[in-house]
Amino acid sequence: MHARLAIALPAVLLLALGCKHAQQPPAHKTVALPPTQAEPAKAVPLPQPPTATTATPPVRKPMLSVAMYISSGAKAGFGMPIAGQQASIRVTPINEKGQPVREVQPVLGAQIVLVAMRADMTWMTLQRAPQWSDPAHFSHEFKVTFPAGGSHVLYFLFRQKDSPVAAVPVFIQVDGKAPALTPPPELTLRYAGKDGLQATLETPEEPFTVCKTSAISSTWTRKGKALALAADGPSVHYVAIDAGLGGVSVAKSTSPDAHATLTFEKPGRYRVLALAEVAGKKPEALLAQFALAVTGEAPAGGCPAEAETGAGAGTGAGAETGAGAGAGAGAGTGTGTGTGTGAKHK
């Protein structure tokens, strides 16, 4: 659409003063000019006194993001995933200038990692991309089959060169029969998985409070033996999602291990996903989930903004969508909300 340029020209008032042969009136007489076709004068409101304005909101730093394109195997072109049918999820990491991230460092031994999960975490799957499936566009195409419809979360992790790990959660809706979401328990800080895997969420804050930054960490064992976590960058990533899907908090790592902080902007019950990278000849990714309760009430204007912005929760429409992911200070990511848009590759 081309913008139209409208130019307003001042009206020119032409007065008939007679021809050049008309005699001029004596100097002591006045001349009545004939009426003109000019518009009547219109009242112009006087300038109003200045009014008080609200404080200008802080400008957020440019954020890392992802451009995502979803298509269903049963439909031509983009569309919502359909339960029981394979869906294609094409994703490209985007830098702060809106361009594809061309250089990445491994996360869990991959260029980019996807954790797809139902909103209540009763189902989840993890996929890694050792190499881009589309190197020309620095993107990768994941294939995911969702077993049921309803609200799901796509959680992407990638690391731009010489930058912290970006963790981007994106909400989508899957078409099909959607069983009722299972509400999270009030407090579950221990997780037991397959093959003797156990994980424990440790925190001095219990219960958690709205707007208060709380320290967390986790320990991981298998058959009673402690697992050695990766030492390159944060070894554990956390994301908390509330029961009503109205809030998401991505943990901000405070050291290159399992320590991080979480800040919640609203009260309620949350499920917490923990994704750990285990050291070894072949990197191993482990998933655990916990539950916790957040008390208190948020201020009318929301929680005070932190100096660093963080990952934004994006909503997926089954077409082209994206989400922001601001890197936090040091070696981690922060918290925040927002949506974005992605571009379909030709």
Q: Please tally the β strands and state the result.
A: 20
Total count of helical runs of at least 4 residues = 0
Cα-atom Rg, whole angstroms? 30 Å
What low-confidence regions span 5 or more consecutive residues with pLDDT below 50?
1-44, 307-346
Instruction: Calculate the mean pLDDT score and round it.
Output: 73
Q: Give the class from helix and strand content and strand pairing.
A: mainly beta
The helical percent reads: under 10%
Give the SSE order as H and E letters: EEEEEEEEEEEEEEEEEEEE
- How far the N terminus sits from the C terminus, by CA atoms, comes to 21 Å
What does this 3D model show about the protein?
The protein has 346 residues and is mainly beta. 0% of the residues lie in helices and 36% in strands. It has no helices and 20 strands. Strands 8, 9, 11, 12, 15 and 16 form a six-stranded antiparallel β-sheet that branches. The protein has a five-stranded mixed β-sheet with strand order 4-3-6-7-19, with no helix packed on it. A five-stranded mixed β-sheet has the order 10-18-17-13-14, with no helix packed on it. β6 and β7 form a beta hairpin. The radius of gyration is 30 Å and the shape is globular. It starts with 63 loop residues before the first strand and ends in a 21-residue tail after the last strand. The N terminus and C terminus are likely disordered.
